[in-house]
Amino acid sequence: MRPFLIAPSILSADFARLGEDVDAVLNAGADVVHFDVMDNHYVPNLTIGPMVCQALRNYGITADIDVHLMVKPVDRIIPDFAKAGASIITFHPEASEHVDRTLQLIKESGCKAGLVLNPATPLHYLDHVMDKLDVILLMSVNPGFGGQSFIPTTLDKLRQVRKLIDDSGYDIRLQVDGGVKVDNIAEIAAAGADMFVAGSAIFNTPDYKAVIDEMRAELASIEA
Ligand SMILES: O=C(CO)[C@H](O)[C@H](O)COP(=O)(O)O
């Protein structure tokens, strides 16, 4: 298994001082910046777009930016995010007219590509595209808001997707997003996740390093 990655969701960051806050969380030991894009159409909330991604790059953020598109339609915003410095772009298959085409568009834009499955979205969306995926993101809450509780049935789904990835032989990250905390991250890792999005658990605390260190300590028990 590859090293575990911790990806703070900036949905819970301080938007009034975003560059500083993202810098702080990276200096505290985070691996990747998780960038939640919501359109008030596919999901009932409205957040940030390519200009903010570009602003983070201009501020000097060099870590990978993992753009989670909760938008419909998907395709027309992809080149803008690639130009703005996105490293990974993931999207929800039911929000795309042509999933294979959208994956190719992301790759042609120079980014890594991934599919996101909501808690009730079936795994069959992964059929026939495993060879084009760098990331599979399983939502462990319904998308739209931070601070929700982890849906326990995600654990079984993670185990199923872990097996699919291992059986496929492809190099695909298994990401989980929603309700990830210090007290459940080990169980989530044991079920097969290797990339952990956590928003409120990190940003709603005064000491980002302390939380990330605690998460890594929990994960070490799985790596051992
Ligand atoms: O995509 C998301 C919501 O749609 C967020 O990334 C996710 O909910 C993370 O927030 P928290 O860790 O607070 O649950």
TrEMBL record:
Active-site residues, as the UniProt record annotates them: 36, 177
EC numbers: 5.1.3.1
Highest taxon above the source species: Bacteria
Binding site for substrate: 9, 68, 144-147, 177-179, 199-200
Uppermost EC category: isomerase
Signal peptide: none
Reactions it catalyzes: D-ribulose 5-phosphate = D-xylulose 5-phosphate
Pathway: Carbohydrate degradation
SUPFAM superfamilies: Ribulose-phoshate binding barrel
Keyword Metal-binding in record: yes
Cofactor: how bound: Binds 1 divalent metal cation per subunit.
Cofactor(s) named in the record: a divalent metal cation; Fe(2+); Mn(2+); Co(2+)
Gene Ontology MF term list: D-ribulose-phosphate 3-epimerase activity
InterPro entries for this protein: Aldolase_TIM, Ribul_P_3_epim, Ribul_P_3_epim-like, RibuloseP-bd_barrel
UniProt keyword list: Carbohydrate metabolism, Isomerase, Metal-binding
UniProt-listed Pfam families: Ribul_P_3_epim (PF00834)
Residues reported in the UniProt entry to bind a divalent metal cation: 34, 36, 68, 177
HAMAP family (alphabetical): RPE (MF_02227)
Function noted in UniProt: Catalyzes the reversible epimerization of D-ribulose 5-phosphate to D-xylulose 5-phosphate.
NCBIfam families recorded: PRK05581.1-4, rpe
Family recorded in the similarity comment: Belongs to the ribulose-phosphate 3-epimerase family.
The protein's name in its UniProt record: Ribulose-phosphate 3-epimerase
Protein's organism: Shewanella schlegeliana
Gene encoding the protein: rpe
